[in-house]
Specification:
Blueprint lengths: L3 E5 L5 H15 L6 H5 L3 H14 L3 E7 L2 E10 L2 H4 L13 E9 L8 H15 L4 E7 L3 H9 L3 E11 L2 E11 L6
Parallel strand pairs: 4-5
Antiparallel strand pairs: 1-2, 2-3, 3-4, 5-7, 6-7
Helix pairs in contact: 1-3
């Protein structure tokens, strides 16, 4: 295996981030999202959004590479209240100590090589450095691969479910939470 690494995203990385998002969504979410939603993903528009995210720093974006290939990415940052509230809107007592894994995607062809674990561990370290001790992530309920990935990292479903409008089709997501004190490689 070529050398694998994770680095903080630079503006030059956003085209690859957008490519990974489009290709991964089309491959992984084909059974979860309407075909027209997946067909309508515009890589250039997505790159513009990631460019703003990387420049503004609202979330920290990390990129996984293997050799010269960009193979995955993760965005993490402080968890907005809407992401951590219970069904009744109440916030957990540790709300200020909760970080959000906003997205973590690895191209399927690069899966099972440790890239996701390295991305999650790097994001967790950054969140810990920012004073966070617990993380949350939302994943599609029927994305068994992602749910299993977080469970292997010691995260658990916390019982919260939300339904998003995915191009006229409901998409249920489950929330998982876990300790950010992890050492995955």
């Amino acid at each position: 295996m070529a050398e694998a690494a994770v680095h903080t995203a630079e503006p030059d990385d956003v085209d690859q981030i957008a490519r990974i998002q489009v290709e991964t969504w089309r491959a992984v979410y084909a059974s979860l999202l309407p075909e027209e939603v997946l067909a309508g993903l515009d890589q250039d528009e997505i790159a513009e959004v990631w460019q703003a995210t990387v420049k503004q720093g609202d979330a920290t974006v990390h990129v996984a590479t293997e050799g010269t290939w960009t193979v995955g990415f993760c965005a993490a940052g402080p968890a907005p209240d809407t992401e951590i509230a219970d069904a009744d809107g109440s916030l957990p007592k540790d709300a200020a100590a909760v970080g959000l894994i906003a997205t973590l995607l690895v191209e399927p062809r690069w899966g099972r090589r440790g890239h996701g674990g390295r991305l999650l561990a790097t994001a967790a370290a950054g969140l810990r450095a920012a004073g966070k001790s617990r993380g949350v992530v939302w994943v599609p309920e029927h994305d068994d691969v992602s749910v299993a990935f977080y469970e292997r990292a010691g995260w658990q479903r916390d019982g919260m479910v939300r339904t998003l409008d995915a191009g006229g089709r409901p998409l249920r997501e489950v929330r998982l939470t876990g300790d950010l004190d992890m050492t995955l490689a």
